[in-house]
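quick one: pyridoxal-5'-phosphate bound model?
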Amino acid sequence: MSIADLTYYRGRVGLFAILDALGVGAGDEVITQAYTCVAVPEAILATGATPRFVDIAVDSLNVDPVAVADAITDTTRAIVVQHTFGVPADMDALMPLAAERGIAVIEDCCHTLTGRLQGRALGSFGVAAFYSFEWGKPLVVGVGGSVRLNDPNLAHRVHQAYGGYRRPSLLRQAKLAAQTAGFGVVYHPRLYWPVRDAFRRLSRVGAVEGNYNALANGQPDEEFSLRMAPMQRLMLRARLRSVRSDSKRRRHLAAHYRDALGSSAQLFAEPSGADTIYARLPLRVTDKGRLLDAARAAGIELAQWYTTPVHPLEGEAARLAGYRAGSCPHAESRCGDVVSLPMHGRVSDRFVERAARFLRGATA
Ligand SMILES: *Cc1c(COP(=O)(O)O)cnc(C)c1O
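yep, here:
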């Protein structure tokens, strides 16, 4: 089975399909890490279950296995394990924990297609994994998601349910096609800030498909019954063919960034045995707000996500998604001191040099 077989409107719809096939629903809890995006709790809530947010480890952007062990209760049905920015989570510690309690592990592979841990592909550890092909992800088709299924019984159920998922309406398809074309033409690291601002303005007025829906209001949003649009599916199949060369390029860029940044940058350590293919390269910085303003002025692509533990939700909206303020202090701190450098196809070696010069100057 390829990850282009069962394709959904978004990554979160793929996660929903997996949870649904596992029989997760009202009265169940699903563990997921803080320092994630709203897509994950949205999918959990759409099943009727409750998200249980767990903190990330110190000096990592991935979940703390000790915190996971503490959070498991009799109602825990699944653990969503996120490989943040493509860095493998601590599967050595997490898999036995889940196995001992008979809890399903679902890998959130939205930041990684080809990363490995101890020689084993990310996405192959749990019963299933899900992927997103939205803007900013390693492979972009605009809006879309898919799944990988490692358990034959689960695969059977997900395949059966897939018949009930419909194609997006022609209006949705047209919007997606227009914005995918626009993005392809205008996008370049120098244009990161203006494109991002325009995208946000347009999605606010509903002219493009933004990445954040209002949380489902008791009823799952219509999107949770949709497949990927046909054009996006064609793009996915075409782009999967260059995944190997893209990964090679990302490996090269990560090494170049490290080299060019030298000791001026605070990077995150990878677990032992990790072969990390970065979605973006995360850095810890001291004055995130000021640095982002300077990057914008200098035309340097520097992303600020995640800005809240359940990005981009704040206050009451975060609480409604199941996040208790103050419950995940590491995640909350990292929202204030992490930025990330781009790794996509338009990033040149010259950009790497320029970004490194900028960061060395800004942090000197
Ligand atoms: C992008 C993303 C998702 C899913 O996003 P969709 O918009 O539903 O495709 C899920 N988890 C993480 C960590 C992501 O970055």
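The pocket of pyridoxal-5'-phosphate is lined by residues 10-12, 36-37, 39-40, 82, 108, 110-111, 132, 134, 137, 145, 211 (CB under 6 Å).
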